[in-house]
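User: Here's a structure from my thesis project, written as structure tokens. My advisor, Dr. K., wants to see whether a designed sequence matches the one we expressed. Can you design one independently, without my sequence as a hint?
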């Protein structure tokens, strides 16, 4: 197979990952006003419940499948056998999850109608084969196909969701979009399996390695769903879930930008590890850290700087508490970026699943305990504090596992320029807002000034990573001009 470009695959994957988050953000200013914080809270709470069944039904297939397909990139027969086995296994586990979900939430109880609609999300997970294309480093296909589906769903939201009584339509639109988007990827499969025969299917051989990846997958629920579930259970006022959901939407978008390189790097790491090229593994690791620092510091400092203007303009009135939550949660952009490099890009592809599992399991326990203590006293603010502290614990534990590859001192040296530049950018934005009263104008100028100051500081500090991007960008432009 032809060697894939990291830059191109990152661009494709980033486009897709931002798409699935940014399109809801485009509708959020409208939906926040139409459905209100209670409607948003109901959606966030019920979806968090459905997500647990998705998690248990998936059993880590996304990461495991991507890694196994990457290992078999050059062997068409082994690739097909692996794909079929994993798909059969996921169908079985998702069927069990759907069965339990049906009897637990779809027959009777609060919000039954919404749980019934969210069954589509479980079905969408059952037919999801994006991991196959990611393992082959074919990111373009997933992007193009899903862009069409997502744009249609956004259009339908604006057309069909007009008041609080349209919450059911809102659920249906997003759940159907996920299902159709995942199902549509199956049309590409014949190209990869043409002329191949299925032999000796033994899907049960994947059970143990998948179970080893199952606990690490819970880490996604720690930061995306457990907090919302506990807020919803411990506090009767669902608006607290709404405030937290809106703050998380903003932070998750920033995290996606920082961590999207991870999906691209997994097959690269896995392939280099399988071939015994330790030096290339170290090189990829260092480049990934550099990339995370390059993006996470300006995004973290930037969202803190503009949150006062951004939240009321974007979400509308009644979401002031989300400003506080965004400021508290913002460090997780950096922390999740670091964890993504160590865990997703390094520990899992190099088969160090035990170390990864231990770190995220401890993080889960810490998160649950802190949530239980802090939510009852500080509501959604307590959940935000618990999220950051538990992720910090995970990062500290995982950093111990890479000390032979890259030292803490090296990481500090890599990050210092970006921290300084990001902090100076924050000061510049703070000064700007003191002189401008109009929210919209202040927001626009802060973003512009922030970008200029950040990149200007990196130029002054002679950051090699920035110059490398500029050099490659100019090279691409020159080559296109010559054509």
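Assistant: Designed independently from the structure alone:
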């Amino acid at each position: 197979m032809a060697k894939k470009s990291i830059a191109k695959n990152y661009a494709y994957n980033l486009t897709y990952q931002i798409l699935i988050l940014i399109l809801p953000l485009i509708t959020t200013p409208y939906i926040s006003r139409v459905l209100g914080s209670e409607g948003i809270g109901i959606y966030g709470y019920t979806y968090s419940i459905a997500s647990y069944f998705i998690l248990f039904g998936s059993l880590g297939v996304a990461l495991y499948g991507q890694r196994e397909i990457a290992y078999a990139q050059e062997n068409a027969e082994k690739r097909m056998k692996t794909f079929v086995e994993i798909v059969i296994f996921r169908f079985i586990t998702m069927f069990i999850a759907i069965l339990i979900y049906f009897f637990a939430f779809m027959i009777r109880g609060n919000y039954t109608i919404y749980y019934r609609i969210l069954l589509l999300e479980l079905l969408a997970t059952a037919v999801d084969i994006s991991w196959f294309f990611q393992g082959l480093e074919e990111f373009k296909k997933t992007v193009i196909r899903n862009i069409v589906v997502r744009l249609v769903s956004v259009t339908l939201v604006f057309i069909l969701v007009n008041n609080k009584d349209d919450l059911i339509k809102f659920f249906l639109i997003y759940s159907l979009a996920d299902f159709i988007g995942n199902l549509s990827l199956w049309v590409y499969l014949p190209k990869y399996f043409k002329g191949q025969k299925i032999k000796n299917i033994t899907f049960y051989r994947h059970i143990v390695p998948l179970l080893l990846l199952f606990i690490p997958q819970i880490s996604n629920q720690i930061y995306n769903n457990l907090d919302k579930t506990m807020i919803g259970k411990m506090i009767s006022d669902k608006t607290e879930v709404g405030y937290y959901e809106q703050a998380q939407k903003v932070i998750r978008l920033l995290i996606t930008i920082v961590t999207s390189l991870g999906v691209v790097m997994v097959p690269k790491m896995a392939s280099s590890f399988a071939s015994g090229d330790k030096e290339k593994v170290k090189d990829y690791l260092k480049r990934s850290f550099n990339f995370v620092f390059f993006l996470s510091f300006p995004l973290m400092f930037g969202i803190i700087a503009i949150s006062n203007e951004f939240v009321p303009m974007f979400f509308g009135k009644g979401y002031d508490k989300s400003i506080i939550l965004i400021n508290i949660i913002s460090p997780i952009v950096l922390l999740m970026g670091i964890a993504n490099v160590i865990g997703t890009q390094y520990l899992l592809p190099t088969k160090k699943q035990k170390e990864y599992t231990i770190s995220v399991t401890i993080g889960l326990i810490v998160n649950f305990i802190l949530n239980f203590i802090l939510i009852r006293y500080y509501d959604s603010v307590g959940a935000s504090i618990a999220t950051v502290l538990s992720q910090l614990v995970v990062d500290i534990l995982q950093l111990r596992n890479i000390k032979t590859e890259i030292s803490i001192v090296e990481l500090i040296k890599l990050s210092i320029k970006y921290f300084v530049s990001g902090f100076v950018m924050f000061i510049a934005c703070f000064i700007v807002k003191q002189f401008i009263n109009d929210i919209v104008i202040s927001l626009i100028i802060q973003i512009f000034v922030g970008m200029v100051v950040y990149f200007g500081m990196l130029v002054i500090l002679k950051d090699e990573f920035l110059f490398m991007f500029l050099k490659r960008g100019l090279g691409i432009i020159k080559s296109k001009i010559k054509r």
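When you compare it with your expressed construct, this may help: The chain has one domain: 6-406.
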